[in-house]
Design a protein that fits this description.
Layout lengths: L1 H11 L6 E5 L11 E7 L17 E7 L2 E7 L4 H4 L6 H9 L4 E10 L9 E9 L24 H13 L5 E7 L8 H10 L3 E3 L3 H10 L2 E11 L10 H29 L2
Parallel strand pairs: 1-4, 1-5, 5-9, 6-7, 7-8
Antiparallel strand pairs: 2-3, 3-4, 5-8, 6-9
Helix pairs in contact: 3-6, 4-7
Bound molecules: hypoxanthine.
Hypoxanthine binds next to strand 5, strand 8 and strand 9.
Protein name: Purine nucleoside phosphorylase
Keywords: Glycosyltransferase, Transferase
EC number: 2.4.2.1
Length: about 270
């Protein structure tokens, strides 16, 4: 951890970001919103996990968005890559130790709602951990009993909505259900998820939210809808479709996040 922090301090030290954004599959283009970007490859950070999934770069990008210092993780490792729900623990601990207070998580997800088509952006207001996994299993301090009642920070959620309306960008809200992946869901699982209260399904984010709350970071999260859930159309779901469709909603999400960060900067002087 010390070695990583030294490298980050040398590269991004003057920036002092308090906001970090984790980019989901196919959402790497969000880094284009970063002004004067500085980069560090995960491979240069000792012990830092690399995602081997196509559509995920592997670098930290630091810079400003609308003048507000920000750190972006372009690429993240997933539970399904190694079966380790705590795979993102070190990166999140690093962000925390580097001074990050607000974490914005993004992902590509499937919609289980007819009125939320591909290209939509959905603010995550709550989640269902359907995987049965938890990144805090094995943690030995009482901190493991992390409260999840307000996991998705209400103030940040309001700020995201305000940014969406200021920029005229449609923003859905809903519950995200975590499936382990990497196979996609079956039509029966999609029907089940809808009955259980989900609006979108995906293979990430939930373990990061749990870890972030454990570490005391404030969390906002949004899904970019890349497809309807299995069985909702006649089509098979593919990763190629995820990568192809993510930039469509990604542009909308970039508009929202840029405005949200600009407002955060004003509020926090
Ligand atoms: N299911 C799970 N994860 C996903 C999907 C999906 O339909 N689309 C993009 N990520």
């Amino acid at each position: 951890m010390k070695a990583i922090l030294d490298i980050l301090a040398a590269r991004f030290g003057a920036l002092k970001p308090r906001h970090a954004v984790i980019l989901g599959s196919g959402l790497g283009s969000l880094v284009e919103a970063v002004e004067n970007p500085l980069r560090v490859a995960y491979g240069d950070l000792p012990g830092f996990p690399q995602s081997a999934v196509s559509g995920h770069a592997g670098e930290l990008v630091g810079g400003t968005i609308a003048g507000v210092p920000v750190l972006m993780m372009s690429g993240r490792i997933h539970y399904y890559e190694k079966g380790n729900a705590a795979a993102m623990r070190l990166p999140l601990e690093v962000l925390k130790a580097f001074g990050i207070e607000v974490l914005v998580l993004t992902n590509a997800a499937g919609s289980v709602r007819d009125d939320m088509p591909p290209g939509s952006v959905m603010q995550i207001t709550d989640h269902i951990n359907f995987s049965g996994e938890n990144p805090l299993i094995g943690e030995e301090t009482d901190q493991r009993f992390t409260g999840m009642t307000s996991a998705y920070d209400p103030e940040l959620a309001a700020a995201m909505h305000a940014a969406a309306s200021r920029t005229g960008t449609p923003l859905h809200t809903g519950v995200y259900m975590w499936f382990s992946g990497p196979s996609f869901e079956t039509p029966a699982e999609i029907r089940m998820s809808r009955i259980l209260g989900a609006d979108a399904v995906g293979m990430s984010t939930v373990p990061e939210v749990i870890l972030a709350r454990f570490l005391g970071l404030r969390v906002a999260a949004a899904s970019v809808i890349t497809n309807f859930g299995a069985g909702m159309t006649g089509n098979e779901i593919t990763h190629a479709e995820t990568k192809e469709m993510a930039p469509v909603g990604g542009r909308r999400l970039a508009a929202i996040l840029t405005d949200m960060l600009a407002a955060e900067g004003k509020n926090n002087g």
